[in-house]
Each structure stands twice: as C-alpha cells, then as structure tokens.
Amino acid sequence: MLTFKQFVEKHCWKGYVKRGMKKKGKRMVNNCVKEDVDTHTARLSRPVLGVTEIIDIEGIGKVEAKIDSGNEAYNVLLGLDIDHHGDECTFTTVNNKRMTLPCTGSVDINIGSGNIESRPTVELNFTIQGKHYTGITFSLADRAQNDQPVLIGEPFVKKINALIDVKQGV
C-alpha cells in the first residue's frame, strides 16, 4: 500500500494524464490514460480577446472596440443623426462617415433609471484578430461620449467561444 506522500508524488508518463485511480492486484495505482489531444487543442485554440480590440468593419475601416462581457444586448456602433426611413437607416458614424444600410429591426435598451431607448439595428461584416464575421447585428447609438465607438457584447463573445483577458487591450 502506498503512503499518501508516495501517492501524491507518483505521476503519469509524458502524453498521459491521471484519470482517478484503479486497482492493480492488491494495490491502488494511478489510472493513466492517453491525453485527448483534440480536446487539449480545442481549449488552446479558443480566441482570447483583450478588453479593447481593433476591428475592421466593412465600409468603415479600422476602429477600436470595447469588449464587454457585461453587456447582454446587441453589439453597438456609434450612430448619430439617425434617419430611419422605410427599410433603411442613414446615419453618421466613425470619422464622420455617412452610411445608409438596411434596417434589420430595433431593440429596446434600458439605459438606466428605467429609461428605455429604442435603437435601430443593422447587420455588419467585420474582422477581428484576422477572422472575418458576416451578418453580425449591431444597434446604433450615440457613443460620442464613450472612449470606443464600438461595443462588442457578451452574445457575440459567446458565439465565437472567446475568452476575455482583462490584462490585454489596445
């Protein structure tokens, strides 16, 4: 029978991991199984985002975005002077760029103290960390007082199965 110290000190060989114990003869030994390379690789290949990232939005260009796991609503793009006419939204965004895009709907956002703001939504294509995403929903809002003109919310972070490293940022 192994002492506790001997038990703790005993390790599996390279390429194998301990998955509990098993009985071998009259002794209990480590149950060493081959490491699941696919699972290990999948864990390591999850994107890791900083609290801010540079994203490249089709039709707008590169902008700084805040990655916000506390925001459970749509992503948000700076939109000023919004003119919602029919199925289209015309607005001014980053670098005073005037855009007209199809409106995909609207979302009601509680902006605090029970105040509800109705925002039009549009779909945008953008690249973050070299990976391109298409048809991603953004609401349009006045983010002129915010440090970043774009906010990426928790639903998108979950969708791409990303981690957020609070020590990273632009």
CATH architecture group name of the largest domain: Beta Barrel
Shape: elongated
Helix/sheet category? mainly beta
Mean model confidence by pLDDT? 85
**What is the total number of structural domains?**
2
CATH superfamily descriptor of the largest domain: Acid Proteases
Alpha carbon gyration radius: 24 Å
Largest sheet: 6 strands, mixed, barrel
What is the strand tally? 14
Biggest β-sheet: strands ordered side by side in the sheet: 4-5-13-6-12-11
Low-confidence stretches: 38-43
Indicate the percent of residues in helices: 10-25%
By DSSP (H or I, 4+ residues per run), the number of helices equals: 3
CATH class of the largest domain: Mainly Beta
**Proportion of residues in β-strands:** over 45%
| CATH fold assignment of the largest domain | Cathepsin D, subunit A, domain 1
Listing every helix as H and every strand as E from the N terminus to the C terminus, the arrangement reads HEEHEEEEEEEEEEEHE
Question: What oligomeric state do these chains adopt?
Answer: single chain
